[in-house]
Amino acid sequence: MNFDFSEDQKQLKDQARRFLENKSSSKAVRRILETPEPFDRELWKGLAEMGFMGTVIPEEYGGLGAGYLELCVIAEELGRSVAAVPFSSTVYLTAEFLLAAGSEAQKQKYLPKIAAGELIGAFAYAEGVGNASARNVHASVSGGKLSGVKLPVLDGDVADIAIVAVKAGKGLSLHIVELDAPGVARTVLETIDPTRSQAKIEFTGAAAELLGAEGAGEEIIERVLDRAAVLTAFEQLGGADRALEMARDYALGRMAFGRPIGSFQAIKHILADMYVSATLARSNCYYGAWALSTEAGELPQAAATARVSATQAYQHCSKNNIQVHGGMGFTWEFDCHLYYRRSNLLALTLGSLSQWEDTLIDRLAKRNAA
Amino acid sequence: MNFDDTPEEAAFRKEVRAWLDANAPKEYAAELKNSGFGHTALKSVDVGVASKAWQKKKFDAGWACLHWPREYGGRGATPIERVIWQQEEGIYAALSSLFIIGHGMCGPTMMTYATEEQKRTYLPPLAAGEHIWCQLFSEPAGGSDLAGLRTKAEKDGDGWVINGQKIWTSGAHYSDYGIVITRTDPNVPKHKGLTMFFLDMHTPGIEVRPIKQVNGQSGFNEVYFTDVRIPDSQRLGKVGEGWSVSLTTLMNERLSIGSGMPTGFPDLLDFVATLETPDGPAINDRNVRSRLASWAVKTSGLKYTAFRSISALSRGEMPGPENSIGKLVAGATMQEIATFALDLQGQAGALVNPEQAAAAARFQAMLLRSPATRIEGGTDEILRNIIAERVLGLPADIRVDKDVPFNKIPTSAKA
């Protein structure tokens, strides 16, 4: 049994960590948090130079043609550094939609640009409060023109193209819309995590091109969301681990009552529980990575497991990181809130935790009955 | 990243399977599979007799205590081979519970500290299941604070005289031998005045009283020592170094108890799929599903954490600290699952007779046994301290009794 990353993959991870410690420092993330600048363009350029956006994109479309295990270790490091870039929307979603359902011409047109860092994508699904599904999507396409309101769309304000879900009878269809075209109006939204911007996009007869078969939207979305769930789980894992380290380091250095607060059992037990949840999440993420990289039949179950576990772990670690820091953890000056914000944002993208819990049990029950 | 055996591992697994297929006591398979948590029972035969027979059969064919050296009754197998054996033995491992303490803790302690002659005398019958061993550590005054123990051993000529009381001794009522930690010097700080021995449980002056537990069974005992005389040759390690000897034992205890612990989740998933409510099967209820999801990911997380440790063994490395979470997660999860399963049963959740209760009363058995899982072999709180101190590197607790002679430490009686 070798249920671990290879030496080469671990080296790639180290390389990504060194790069991000330098280019996505807390100072760099705070620049996005505190200014109207929507994302870190310099970091985005650097990630493109490293070839990270094209990790799994085949060489014929300008990518590196490496595997998903490589993309998983990069995702973990992006999460650890709370990188302020539209990587997930572009790489885990837009590129995956194109790979899963795009025509040859669509792949030729967009994938090389994504691999080169020249194109940002977004997935426009939700239309207001509540998890999106075929039952609450009202946007529609008629004669190649798309109309409707999508909100919120992660990275929708900075994206060049969007994959838009629209009504198709009782189901859904997907369309590609170029966002600089007429009939597209975008408004930036204020959110709990300003380091990842979100937008409201109003389509009024915007030119739209079908992606995949008419009415096949739900099936494609499910497939792509499972893949994105594993990759996002690695971002969450990276963040959870970093939050645990921050809390541990603070507990070692902070003195109270004449001793380091980390010598009190009340603090030790909080940290031990953070370690437990991060360790469970890591093992479940590895399971997801294995399923994703081998296209295993278990992928739906593994993806939901990794997603639920990593969401719980990141929320648990980020909130307790603040608790261990005490009042200082609630200041703008300390970095705890960057992780608290991101953990709660990532818990909602791709469908919220309760929806994934429901999906997980649905899939486990079906497998169990089979 | 893969779950595949190496060619050597695959060959070993094939050999194990072939032997098990030809020799496992398949007549008990159905009953072992359905046995309640924490209690294995067989209708046709005494479970102790069946356990000893299975152990002897394994021993004779060279499949007992795989990781022990051959000269002491083992197979000299690698750690990964031991794991493969455990995976393949499956439900029949329920017949090994009599021997867990002896094989997992007493044996390794004897291996490290006994003389060559003693090892050759005592270890093979232990491996063969002919002798059962127990571990006499905890006391009324020393549980989590084990080094606070008070049972004393006093030098008397060529031997020692032991007086005192042990408690929570698993299997003492059917054990042939035991290892016992005693206080030999009360005038030095508590960790420095301890000495370890092994002894025959039939030595005059030993009295074993089973403790009736919450679940009605009696796996644990009180053991009283009244002027129990043993020769100095049964001392393990030097006088005053019993604490470091006990750490050898406890390290093995945490390894053997912490791996592959059940949470009860597969049982619960089966149960909610078949439990009919006025609104259809219980699993269709969204609240039920949300509760289940958290336990599903804990159970899965434990499984794949074990796989990560096994991968390290497969590469010939020591597993990382991730192993330490097993019992902490499994014990509490099982208790939650049991409570929830009873809740779904309504008032009938109170029934405990397997003939009358839902799911053959397996959740009631879990409910009544799981409190012990959270205590034995290190309480949840001690395990959190261990994770915090040894894995995360936080400072050890400030111990007010550290440099105080043992007989000057305040106790509950003289605080």
Fraction of residues in β-strands of chain A: 15-25%
For the termini of chain B, the CA-CA separation is 57 Å
Under CATH, the homologous superfamily of the largest domain in chain B reads: Acyl-CoA dehydrogenase/oxidase, N-terminal domain
Which assembly state applies to the chains in this document?
Answer: heterodimer
Strand ordering within the main sheet of chain B: 1-4-5-8
Total count of strands of chain A:
9
Number of domains of chain B: 3
Choose one word for the global shape of chain A: globular
**Ranges of chain B with pLDDT <50 over ≥5 residues?**
none
Overall tally of structural domains of chain A: 3
**Radius of gyration of chain A over all CA atoms, rounded:** 20 Å
Helix content of chain A: 40-55%
If you average the pLDDT of chain B, what whole number results? Answer: 90
Task: Determine the N-to-C terminus distance of chain A.
Answer: 27 Å
CATH architecture of the largest domain in chain A: Up-down Bundle
> How many H/I helical runs of chain B?
12
> Based on CA inertia axes, which overall geometry of chain B fits?
globular
Number of strands of chain B: 10
Strand content of chain B: 5-15%
Output the radius of gyration of chain B.
Answer: 23 Å
Major sheet attributes of chain A: 7 strands, mixed
